[in-house]
Design brief:
The structure is a homodimer. Chain A is built from 14 helices and twelve strands. Chain A is of the alpha/beta class. In chain A, the strands form three sheets. The first copy, chain A, has a six-stranded parallel β-sheet, with helices on both faces. In chain A, strands 7-6-8-9 form a four-stranded parallel β-sheet, sandwiched between helices. In chain A, helix 1 crosses helix 2 and helix 8 runs parallel beside helix 9. The longest helix of chain A is centred in the last third of the chain and has 18 residues. The C terminus of chain A is likely disordered. The first copy, chain A, binds a DNA duplex through helix 2 and helix 4.
DNA sequence: TCTTGAAGTTCAAACGTTTGAATGGTATAT
DNA sequence: ATATACCATTCAAACGTTTGAACTTCAAGA
């Protein structure tokens, strides 16, 4: 064991009575290593292992001028949304021999900037940003361009800024949810709209309205509710709970609630059950995202699944392509990937209490 | 913008008609920078900013022989258990100007080893491992010692290997849960024990038994159930669900279920509700951990909270201390921190259906 | 005997940064 | 006039690694 500091190449070289070069060539499996006698190679490897040698990635990166690192900046790792995306990214990068350096902005702009800078300092070769909000005008973006580091963003469309973007088709998702409730026979449907500063809110709401419209239904404005802008991504639960209480207090009922996301839906369920109503018998609830708590709550929340893992994989693939073309092509065009969401039917949705009268009168239903 | 590669100190120096040294001294705010004229300093800073210069952390680490980096190896970042621990670690390290390099072993031993090696290669100055399982005999441990990198582990006791350990008092937690049910008046209590290969399982079970014993209750072996060893940390839900179904099918009932963790508890709730029973009126359910889904499900799960954030903070503090003493003290003694858990009463637990008869007969209760 | 070629190994420079020592100035005290 | 102090800046070496070029040594071919 060394007195201090790490075991280096020259430690190994000294122990083997060889030069640093030879040891480096062998341990890094450079092309030249085929010219080194197998016995020597083995001797070096054994010695390196017994000394506990591990190459210094800083020295290596400096010399090779490659870090094999991609930065992944998530707006909040504790949001269940991020986890599968990050995992998809990680898998894909790992297979391409890249290390994904993950940092967590915790929805704080200050941290966001700090970490973006840190990724630059750590010489990430590319950056993937997961952010359905924040990330507006930071001048670090210019620095990233100056240093020729490609970016991909997950969760919103920034192709206008010439950044390749991967996101779910929110319009279609909203429409899927609404059509599901309409198909079940609901007509009095309450809608909880997302915070205004979140990118997803508007297209989702559009999809909901368009689907209602196509079925000849105009959504009653008295049955819509707006979630406030909040920093805490877990606040959706509180919002849903408050909505349910207010709605029940107002006496202005509905047979189904279409919530902005799963946390909101779980808040609504809590409010309804607390008041002694049954879900879905008295009122259906539909969420969005398909996060873990929605699947394991009882009743299971009917929701719109975002292909999160797939989105991560796609983002990583696009980034790897950009890295490949980095030197040849200067001008890359930003691409937009809008992935299809999927309806996941669980037990929080059912025909309305009076469905038999509203729909087909046959006794089979 | 440079043709390729990043902007370097010498780019800035050239643009300022100054030497690399001066620019370095100013931008890194070295002590010598007080000797540099303020006008010069400002000129350098402006130029650096306009060129988009960011210091190369690899070159800096190489020269300074410090990386200001601590590795955080979690056995599974998608486990809600890890999130608050990691956040506590991150906060604490950040305040001490350290960067926490987080990696996710996804409960795979192969990844665990690979990432541990990577942390060594990235010259993490210390390592925090979050692992209630895995992490048995990896010879990388020896390498870590050889390179004089301090370790702290969260989630199990490895003081026998002279590694400082931070964990919750599982024995006390189990006892708390059992005493809560006993206090409510339950006598027929089913217990779902954790997987054998998980460190927490045994002490938790001991605590449960000791508390029962102290109250003069012997737990009926027909009411205990053993979760199988599983790689997927989300499998607790399935286990709980299966338990509930089997128990109901056997007709051998109980008035309360003490589940190994929250996911298991949520599985039990699903099984009971599916069968038309009410929670907590017909059967109480208690979990362990206090993860998000337990709080936002309805009924909210009564559970034993682990002070996860605090555990992260503590682990980081101990590591920072070890880093401070690294050079002076060679022999550090490993410390054991066993933190007190806390009972969180929600709505999944209540007196048993026949509580009035079993306990005090007064009408006030 | 002299090339030629290969095998096995080493030299030395470079990557971008930091930093102790050194430089050339100018002002003040002796 | 010389020493002292300080100011503003630069020199040069070092961190651990990689790699193109160079160097031996030995054997075979001309």
């Amino acid at each position: 064991m060394r007195e201090r500091g790490h075991v280096t190449l020259s430690d190994v070289a000294r122990a083997c009575h060889l030069s640093v070069s030879t040891v480096s060539i062998v341990l890094s499996e450079a092309p030249l290593s085929s010219h080194v006698a197998e016995t020597t190679r083995e001797r070096i490897r054994v010695m390196a292992a017994s000394l506990g040698y591990h190459p210094d990635v800083h020295a290596r990166s400096l010399r090779r001028r490659r870090t094999q690192t991609v930065g992944v900046l998530a707006y909040d790792m504790s949001d269940p949304f991020c986890i599968p995306v990050v995992r998809g990214i990680e898998e894909t990068l790992q297979a391409a021999q890249y290390f994904s350096l993950q940092v967590n902005a915790q929805t704080q702009r200050m941290l966001f900037d700090r970490y973006l800078r840190m990724l630059l300092e750590r010489r990430a070769e590319g950056v993937i940003v997961i952010a359905s909000w924040v990330f507006e005008e930071t001048n670090l973006l210019a620095d990233i361009e100056k240093n020729n580091v490609p970016i991909v963003i997950v969760g919103r469309d920034l192709t206008a800024r010439r950044i390749t973007s991967v996101l779910v088709d929110n319009h279609e998702g909203g429409a899927l949810a609404m059509r599901h409730l309409l198909d079940l026979g609901h007509r009095r449907i309450a809608v909880i709209r997302g915070p205004e500063e979140m990118f997803d809110s508007e297209p989702r709401w559009q999809g909901i309205r368009d689907a209602a419209c196509a079925a000849g239904l105009r959504i009653d404005p008295r049955l819509t509710f707006q979630l406030p802008n909040q920093v805490d991504p877990h606040s959706g639960f509180e919002g849903g709970l408050r909505f349910a209480r207010e709605m029940l207090a107002s006496g202005f009922g509905c047979s189904a609630v279409l919530a902005f996301d799963d946390l909101t839906a779980l808040g609504v369920v809590r409010g309804l059950l607390e008041a002694g109503l049954r879900v879905p018998e008295d009122c259906s609830v539909v969420g969005f995202d398909d996060i873990l708590p929605a699947a394991i709550a009882t009743p299971g929340i009917t929701t719109i699944r975002q292909p999160l893992n797939e989105m991560g994989v796609l983002a990583a693939q696009r980034l790897l392509e950009a890295l490949d073309q980095r030197d040849t092509t200067r001008m890359r065009k930003a691409r937009l990937h809008r992935l299809a969401p999927e309806l996941v039917v669980r037990t929080s949705s059912a025909p309305p209490p009076t469905a038999e009268k509203e729909r087909a009168p046959g006794p089979g239903r």
